[in-house]
Design goal:
CATH architecture: 2-Layer Sandwich
Strand order of the largest sheet: 1-2-5-4-3
Number of strands: 12
Largest sheet: 5 strands, mixed
Radius of gyration: 16 Å
Number of helices: 7
Strand content: 25-35%
Shape: globular
């Protein structure tokens, strides 16, 4: 399963060199759950990347035959707002109907937190030691810990993703095997440490977003 996407993942990693990035979405999820018998078809590779290297990586992917577009579409809430940033922030690279989706952001640090932008004007800060290395089908890549990945998916499912019916059942199904791997003592501690920055003002995560 996912042999074609393993090639796409290797293409991306070939272009990255020393660029700062981390993979989230189904590739990160399956890297943790496949050893426990949960695997499924990958739909795309979701990446968060530092904008300082994004243009360089984009050019390399295009040289490998990928076509650049955007992953913003009318199904998404705030479509018209996001569309303004579609060609410089929300990038999709496609080849043979296989997709790499890159959220281009500014990486920074605040105290012990690693900061990245989620949406224009909204940033997230996670503890630096929650950045991790995982692998899928023998291919290693940078990602986040199981607990942070679960937190990201819980927040997404309770906010923007809740309004998007497309693949909604799949998103909820993905949470079940991931939840079994979460250390909830660590998870509850992380909830108190992670911050959401709105116009650069840090806020704790409201509990209703991770219920």
């Amino acid at each position: 399963m996912n042999k074609d996407y393993i090639v796409v993942l290797k293409d991306f990693l070939q272009c990255v060199n020393n660029s700062r990035y981390f993979i989230v979405g189904s590739v990160a999820l399956l890297s943790y759950t496949k050893p426990y018998s949960y695997d499924r078809q990958i739909q795309d590779i979701d990446i968060i990347m530092d904008k300082n290297k994004a243009l360089e990586v984009s050019k390399k992917l295009i040289n490998l035959g990928y076509k650049q577009n955007t992953f913003i579409n009318p199904r998404m809430p705030f479509f018209k707002i996001f569309l303004k940033h579609s060609q410089d922030k929300f990038l999709r690279f496609s080849k043979n109907n296989l997709n790499i989706e890159i959220l281009v952001t500014t990486f920074s640090e605040y105290k012990n937190l690693f900061i990245f932008e989620l949406y224009p004007g909204i940033k997230a800060g996670i503890p630096k030691n929650e950045l991790n290395i995982s692998s899928y089908n023998g291919v290693k890549f940078d990602t986040v810990s199981v607990e942070i990945l679960y937190l990201i998916k819980k927040i997404a499912n309770n906010t923007v993703a809740e309004k998007v019916k497309y693949r909604q059942e799949q998103r909820y199904n993905d949470l079940k095997p991931l939840k079994k791997l979460v250390n909830f003592e660590r998870f509850n501690l992380l909830i108190s440490q992670v911050r959401i920055f709105i116009i650069n003002i840090p806020f704790k995560i409201p509990k209703f977003l991770v219920k």
